[in-house]
Amino acid sequence: MSRLLSYTRRPYALLGIILFGLVFTACQSTPPAADEPTATGAPVATEAPAPTDTPAADSNAAASTQEDTNAEAAQAVSLMAMLQRAEGLEDFVSYAESSGLAEKLEGDALYTLFVTPNAAFDALPEQVRNDADLMAQIMDEHLIEGAFLIQALIEAGGTPNVAGTDIVVMRGGTGGTVNGSNILGADFAGTNGVIHVLDTLLLPPAQQAEIMALYPSVAGEVTYVMQGNIHIEQGETSPVAYNSTPPTSGPHYPNIVAWQVYEEPFAYEQVIHNLEDSGVLIYYQCAEPCPALFQQLSDFAQPYIDAGRHVAVVPNDPSWTTAAGVHPHADMGAPIAVVAWQKLLKLDEFDGDKMAQFIEAYEGIDHHVK
């Protein structure tokens, strides 16, 4: 197996929410007391959240006083008021109001709310944004009864939301996810609950396939729901089952493999980072030796590799067994699969035109958490 390229992930990003012109950062405000019951009867956690940035200590007394003022100001308003005074969450506010979610966020009951910036709504197909009933279902996916800091959700592994969907909250070596959406910020507390910020919207499970089918296709590829960017230890197996074969996102190792043509397989966890790092992987699968197909793919990919493009050719081998007796690969159902972040094109035979279209559309787009 070829060497791995050392790769250092960008620092985990915290989305600053602006309230009254002040930066409202995670862990600044004081949640209800630990022994105070929430709407679900569970206590509010008080530990600092692991996957978010922790504000640096400030020895300046005036700055500390200002931080206390920020916390008091945040506590004085409801979750809905916090959203209405924030920058970059205007779309979330609009859909919360049109769907009826806003009424709950202005009441006395305690809630945990996941919010997303405007860019998350921009990424949705227009047909989805214009479907009021579907958008109402999507908004309900973001609400949990009871106020929970992110660390409590991580320790519990998650909890059901008001729509009845199991919300799975995970922490990785870097970052954390909520049903595959990356956590950008956490523990913004108001009078009636707490807000956590995600990078993508949570979709109703029953409508996910329908929604993803609405994304435009360049070469006949399928778009898959993102499963997050968290890092796991080298050699570990993904803690979640990937939603496609080969996978297009999800938990992975912190290093990438060199951009070249390979005849030996890699664990999916190893090469997903190549997708995150703006790459395209061309998988090939043969029940028997297939030197002609391998040569076609090599000849096709090598000019991209020589030009410094992020392209690699790797085998997919369902019969591959590790020393531990594990089968890291599954049958991908086609001899060729071209993969980018959340994008998968399967081909029954070599098609250079479609593969080139796919590469030109998706190679070079960085997908690290920003």
Textual characterization of the structure:
- The protein is 28% helix and 18% strand.
- It has helices at residues 61-75, 79-84, 90-99, 101-105, 118-122, 126-129, 132-140, 150-156, 208-212, 268-276, 291-306, 352-362, and strands spanning 4-5, 17-19, 22-24, 111-115, 143-145, 158-160, 166-171, 176-178, 181-190, 193-198, 222-223, 256-257, 280-284, 311-315, 336-340, 343-347.
- The protein has twelve helices and 16 strands.
- α3 packs across α7 (132-140).
- The chain has two domains: 4-206, Roll (FAS1 domain); 217-362, Glutaredoxin, CATH 3.40.30.
- β15 and β16 (343-347) form a beta hairpin.
- It has 370 residues and is of the alpha+beta class.
- The two termini are 32 Å apart.
- The longest helix has 16 residues, at 291-306.
- The strands form four sheets. The chain has a seven-stranded mixed sheet. Strands 11-16-15-13-14 form a five-stranded mixed sheet, sandwiched between helices. It has a two-stranded antiparallel sheet with strand order 1-12.
